[in-house]
Design brief:
- There is one protein chain.
- By secondary structure, the protein is of the alpha/beta class.
- The chain has four domains: 115 residues, Nucleoplasmin core domain (Jelly Rolls, Sandwich); 160 residues, Rossmann fold; 56 residues; 186 residues, no CATH class.
- It has 19 helices and 20 strands.
- The strands form six sheets. A five-stranded parallel sheet has the order 11-12-15-10-16, sandwiched between helices. A four-stranded antiparallel sheet has the order 3-7-5-6, with no helix packed on it.
- Strand 18 and strand 19 form a beta hairpin.
- Helix 12 packs antiparallel against helix 13, helix 13 packs across helix 16 and helix 18 packs parallel to helix 19.
- The chain is elongated, with a radius of gyration of 37 Å.
- It starts with 10 loop residues before the first strand and ends with a helix.
- It comes from Fluviicola taffensis (strain DSM 16823 / NCIMB 13979 / RW262).
- Pfam families: KAP_NTPase (PF07693).
- InterPro entries: KAP_P-loop, P-loop_NTPase.
- This is KAP NTPase domain-containing protein.
């Protein structure tokens, strides 16, 4: 699914999750739900259940079985048992079925087991397919106002790498304003290693190929053979007559001398004709000939050959057909090797500015109404200063790529709202599995500190944390720590160095967060220590000081819970200040220490 607009099903201006209300009973005892691999989230709850109320001293049951068809692991089953000893009208056992967000689960089957003995058992099951999508109503309005401004014919669309720039533009042009623009896209990264002369040739080929899909009527012309003969003779009289005489002379041996005479005459006249032509002088015609040669030269600054004229003509027809503007989107500059970025930008800018030929004036070579250059301006700025020096005027270079100002794509608040909803669902499972809550703490911190792009976050969600399995090899506090599983999970997607750098940067960033760093730091301190002789407390060293951690083990999981720093037994080393209030900086330091151990 990753590629152009890889979050294509994620953006919306409304809520787009699908809610299914299903009934399971003795007559309708089987349900089947297909999973969407692009948005694989499915959750279950029940809105009511019941059975025949005839009293019985025997325990009667109804078993609801969930079969998850996994592409790698086969069928995984979970079930809920309802009994006549329960108050079924209030029991909501279905909600204890773990929501899934694994794209490898292709199908979910729900059925009543044959073991069921409750008569007339029925249950209403509410199924949520897919999460709420990211609401981009506000960013759509902001961008629409910007692009509608007639002054903005050149737009530099800037946003951080992985923030969904391409997806947003696809959503804007393909869904929100599908019939308002004719959109063409080129990807210079595909031909970044080509010569400067070839780059624009490939851009033209890209545009021509897309124009073929617009069902435009191309000019077609034909002439009969008689007319073609007459025009050729008229335009080439000497060549035609001499060729005719030579061929006639070969028909008859008596006229063979004529062919030799024609060849001798042509050889005699050739230097005379050349001298005659060299003595002719027409400055205006010479200037026109020179200009035409430059215009015909592929890749030159003023190139305007047949194919450029054809593209311009077809774009005009496309625009006039529905009276809607043409837009060219130049994509993927973020993915380009830094050595090629400015070379390609310079090739593009050479054909950007006001262009005049044959009395026509346009804002670019093809007369396109809007050209959108997609990149991260801050990334381009960094590369520019690295290449040309920090004192080189970047603004003077980059401002030729936009008409009024760069358009900075800002979608962070929408994305945070979407991901907060997911993390809240993790938080609610803290008592079911404390490691899920610990995972949400790390993700929330990375998100709030802007160390997770949208692309990274969605990849994390697609790799389902709840189904991620680890096997402890020791009973050490490190492997029993609540954060151990989360850090192991993150290391499957990042290197230890990448993760360490993220948490290192978080230490110096200022942002609001609701995370209790004192309590979470106690978890990490415990994970770095060793068990005391009583098997209940943990002793650990941090920042030159020794700490004793009071803690318990979760009865369902061998996980350290409720850790508290025992201040009475906190041994303070000479020269090292006692840390009583652990901050974000301390928490991040402890995460980095854990990552070092994992490495």
């Amino acid at each position: 699914m990753w590629g152009d607009g890889e979050f294509a099903s994620l953006f919306s201006t409304t809520e787009n999750m699908e809610i299914l209300k299903l009934e399971l009973n003795e007559k309708e005892s089987f349900l089947k739900i297909e999973n969407n691999p692009e948005d694989p989230y499915i959750s279950f709850s029940s809105s009511g259940s019941g059975y025949n109320t005839v009293s019985s001293n025997n325990t009667l049951i109804a078993e609801v079985v969930f079969k998850f068809h996994h592409a790698k692991h086969g069928i995984i089953e979970e079930s809920i048992i309802f009994s006549n000893q329960d108050s079924l009208n209030t029991k909501n056992g279905i909600s204890s079925i773990t929501p899934i967000s694994d794209p490898n689960i292709e199908l979910v089957e729900i059925h009543l087991s044959e073991k069921s003995t409750l008569k007339d058992f029925h249950i209403s099951i509410v199924v949520q397919k897919g999460r709420n999508r990211i609401n981009v109503e506000s960013p759509i309005k902001l961008f629409h106002d910007f692009i509608q401004n007639r002054a903005n014919s050149k737009i530099l669309f800037s946003g951080g790498f992985g923030q969904g720039k391409t997806t947003f533009l696809n959503f804007y042009f393909n869904e929100a304003y599908e019939k308002s623009y004719n959109v063409f896209r080129v990807f210079p990264v595909n031909y970044s290693v080509a010569s400067n002369e070839d780059i624009f040739k490939y851009i033209k080929a890209d545009i021509l190929f897309q124009l073929l899909g617009f069902d435009i009527e191309f000019d077609k012309s034909s002439i009969d053979i008689k007319q073609a003969f007459q025009e050729y003779v008229y335009l080439n009289p000497k060549k035609t007559i001499f060729s005719f005489l030579r061929n006639v002379s070969k028909i008859n041996a008596q006229t063979e001398m004529l062919d030799k005479s024609i060849k001798a005459f042509n050889k005699f006249m050739e230097p005379i004709i050349n001298y005659h032509e060299s003595q002719q002088s027409d400055d205006e015609e010479a200037a026109k000939t020179y200009i035409k040669s430059i215009y015909d030269q592929e890749g030159s600054l003023f190139e305007d050959n047949f194919y450029s004229q054809l593209i311009r003509q077809l774009l005009e027809r496309t625009k006039e057909r529905n009276n809607i503007p043409n837009v060219l989107i130049i994509e993927d500059l973020d993915r380009m090797d830094p050595d090629h970025i400015f070379r390609i930008l310079n090739v593009i800018s050479a054909h950007y500015d006001t262009y005049k030929y044959n009395g026509n004036e346009t804002h670019n070579k093809f007369g396109i109404d809007k050209i959108i250059l997609v990149c991260d301006i801050e990334n381009i700025r960094s590369i520019f200063h690295h290449r040309y020096g920090v004192n080189t005027n970047f603004e003077g270079y980059i401002n030729k790529y936009y008409s009024t100002r760069p358009y900075v794509f800002e979608n962070l608040s929408s994305v945070k709202g979407y991901l907060d909803e997911i993390l809240e669902s993790y938080d609610k499972k803290r008592f079911k599995d404390p490691r899920i809550f610990a995972h949400s703490v790390l993700l929330r911190l990375l998100l709030e500190g802007e160390e997770l792009s949208l692309r990274e976050m969605l990849k994390l969600l697609l790799n389902d944390f709840e189904s991620f399995r680890i096997t402890n090899t020791t009973s050490s506090p490190f492997e029993n720590g609540q954060f151990y599983k989360s850090l192991r999970f993150l290391k499957n997607l990042y290197t230890s160095r990448e993760l360490s750098l993220k948490f290192e940067r978080l230490k110096s960033k200022n942002f609001k967060t609701s995370i209790d760093f004192q309590k979470q730091s106690a978890h990490l301190l415990a994970g770095l220590g060793t068990w005391a002789t009583n098997g209940k407390n943990i002793t650990t060293n941090y920042s030159g000081n020794s700490y004793e951690i009071d803690c318990d083990l979760n009865i369902h999981y061998d996980i350290i819970i409720n850790p508290e720093i025992n201040q009475r037994n906190h041994a303070m080393m000479p020269g090292n200040p006692r840390i009583t209030n652990f901050s974000k900086k301390h928490f991040c330091d402890l995460v980095i220490e854990h990552l070092d151990v994992l490495t």
